[in-house]
Amino acid sequence: SNTKVYISPWSPPAFMKLNKSVLHGGRLLHDFYPAWANYFVKFIQAYEKSGIPIWGLTIQNEPMATQIWESCIYTAEEERDFLKYHLGPTLAKNGLGNKKIIVWDHNRDLMFQRAATIFDDPQAAKYAWGMGFHWYENWSGGQQMYENVKKVHEAYPTKNLIFTEG
After folding, report:
1. Candidates 48, 62, 77, 147; catalytic one
2. Is the pLDDT of residue 42 over 90?
């Protein structure tokens, strides 16, 4: 099959988060960065053992959205540091360095700022295959902000851009 499967978490377990809930945003506690990175490895290995190859992954679905449902907030710096010091190296050391790591995975409004924070850091950028973006911006007063996709592409032409939700 040519189907490509990627994984995208909505929340770490409650005990790993500052708000002790999988709901309502919250943040991944720094002490759990290594364990959460290892969870990605175990998840991918379990799926692949069951015959479902994983092409890639996003670090967090909607990392700037506090939702009433499962959600988790990452600032650009938190996402960069989790990728740079934990997720990227942990996947690599477990033979999963070929998985495509997609950052941001959220709306177009803040994608350029997120790209600059992550892609301008060579240690983080080496693990990032590209950036995911969603197709909703009407909530922001109607400005669709398509130019932000172009700005990211022009500034970081070696990074892939992928539509992940809409």
Report:
1. 62
2. yes
Q: Is residue 147 flagged as an active site residue?
A: no
Token pair recorded at residue 125: 């950028």
Per-residue pLDDT, 140? 59
Q: Extract the tokens encoding 151.
A: 């700005």
| Active site (annotated) includes residue 70 | no
Task: Supply angle C-alpha 1, 160, 74, rounded to 5.
Answer: 105
Exposed/middle/buried for residue 117 (C-beta within 10 Å: 0-12, 13-18, 19+): buried
pTM (2 d.p.): 0.95
> Side by side, which strands form the sheet with 128-134?
6-7, 56-58, 100-106, 128-134, 160-165
Please report, for the chain, how many H helices and E strands are present, in that order: 6, 5
What pLDDT sits at residue 136?
Answer: 79
Tell me, what amino acid is at 118? I
CA dihedral 84, 152, 116, 19 (to 10 degrees): -70
